[in-house]
Design brief:
Number of helices: 13
Number of strands: 11
CATH topology of the largest domain: 2-enoyl-CoA Hydratase, Chain A, domain 1
CATH class of the largest domain: Alpha Beta
CATH architecture of the largest domain: Alpha-Beta Complex
Strand content: 15-25%
Structural class: alpha/beta
Strand order of the largest sheet: 1-2-3-4-6-8-11
CATH superfamily of the largest domain: 2-enoyl-CoA Hydratase, Chain A, domain 1
Distance between the termini: 36 Å
Number of domains: 2
Shape: globular
C-alpha cells in the first residue's frame, strides 16, 4: 500500500463514488503546521486522514509534530461535530513511524507526548492506525492509543526504552498493559525484543493483519461499516468503555455502569433509533 502522497489518484469513478477510503485518499491535503515535515491532513465525508510525513527518517515525531498533533486532537475533541473516524498512516511502506526523535529524548521529552497520545485515545470517534509499515518506540503507543490497528503482513515492532535507560511514561505503560496484558508488555518493555506480524496479531497489538494487496480494500470496508453507524452513539459507547477499562473504586465503577444504563435507555427511546429501525424495516 502506498502512502497517500504516493497513492495513484486514477481510481475509477465508480471507486470514488462507492469507496470512502478512495475518496479520502483523493481529497486535498493540508499541513497541520508550517514547520518542515509537519503531519498532513485530508478529510472527506466526515472521515479524516492524518499522514506522518518524514519518510527519510522513518516518519519520526519531532517535538513540533507533537505540539501540532496535540492542538489538532484538542480541537477535534471540542468540535460539536467530530469526524466519524480518524485514520493515521505513515508515508511510504517501510515504516509507520519510529516514534519520538532520538536526539530530543534527553532534552525535550516531557508531558506533551503523553498528553497528546492520551488526547488521541479519548477522541470521540473511531480511530484507526493504518500500519502499512513497521512501528517502533513511541509510535507503538500511538498505535495502541487508536481503537483499531490494521496492519499488512510482514511488519515488525519493538520498544527500545529499556535499552536507552528510559522508564516509560505512565500513560504508555497503562495502554500496553490494558491492550496487551502483563506477559506481552513485560516481553516488549523489559527486553526490547523485536516481534513480527504473526505475534503482533496474536498478542492483540494488531486488530487485523491483511495481505499487502488487500490493505486498501480492507480499510475501505471498515470505513463503509463506520458510515452506517450513529456518531453520537459511537462517541458515548467509546467514552463509557474507556471509563470502565480505567477502573477505580467500587463507587466509581458503579457510577460508570449507571451512566451506561442511562445511555442504553436514552438511545432505546430516541428518535434516532426509531428513524433507523423504520428505515431498516422498510427495506
Amino acid at each position: 500500500m502506498r502512502a497517500p502522497s504516493e497513492h495513484p489518484m486514477n481510481q475509477a469513478a465508480t471507486d470514488l463514488a462507492t469507496d470512502p477510503w478512495a475518496r479520502l485518499l483523493a481529497a486535498p491535503e493540508t499541513a497541520l503546521a508550517d514547520h518542515p515535515g509537519s503531519p498532513k491532513l485530508r478529510d472527506s465525508d466526515g472521515f479524516w486522514l492524518l499522514r506522518l510525513d518524514r519518510p527519510d527518517e522513518h516518519n519520526r515525531l519531532d517535538p513540533a509534530d507533537v505540539d501540532a498533533l496535540g492542538a489538532f486532537f484538542a480541537a477535534r475533541a471540542a468540535d460539536p461535530t467530530p469526524p466519524r473516524a480518524l485514520v493515521i498512516i505513515g508515508t511510504g511502506e517501510r515504516t509507520f513511524s519510529s516514534g519520538y526523535t532520538l536526539g530530543a529524548i534527553g532534552t525535550e521529552l516531557d508531558h506533551r507526548l503523553e498528553d497528546m497520545l492520551d488526547a488521541l485515545e479519548r477522541l470521540p470517534c473511531l480511530t484507526i492506525a493504518a500500519l502499512s509499515g513497521s512501528v517502533y518506540g513511541g509510535a507503538t503507543d500511538m498505535a495502541l492509543a487508536c481503537d483499531l490497528r490494521i496492519g499488512r503482513d510482514g511488519l515488525r515492532m519493538f520498544m527500545p526504552a529499556a535499552r536507552f535507560g528510559l522508564h516509560y511514561y505512565p500513560g504508555g505503560l497503562r495502554r500496553y498493559l490494558d491492550r496487551l496484558g502483563l506477559g506481552a508488555t513485560a516481553k516488549l518493555m523489559l527486553t526490547g525484543m523485536t516481534i513480527e506480524s504473526a505475534e503482533m496479531l496474536r498478542i492483540g497489538f494488531l486488530t487485523e493483519s491483511v495481505p499487502a494487496g488487500d490493505f486498501d480494500t480492507r480499510l475501505g470496508e471498515i470505513l463503509d461499516a463506520v458510515a452506517l453507524t450513529d456518531p453520537a452513539t459511537v462517541a458515548r459507547m467509546k467514552a463509557n468503555l474507556l471509563e470502565l477499562l480505567a477502573g477505580g473504586s467500587r463507587a466509581e465503577t458503579a457510577a460508570v455502569l449507571a451512566e451506561m444504563a442511562r445511555a442504553h435507555v436514552e438511545s432505546r427511546d430516541s428518535e434516532e433509533l426509531q428513524r433507523r429501525l423504520a428505515a431498516r424495516l422498510a427495506r
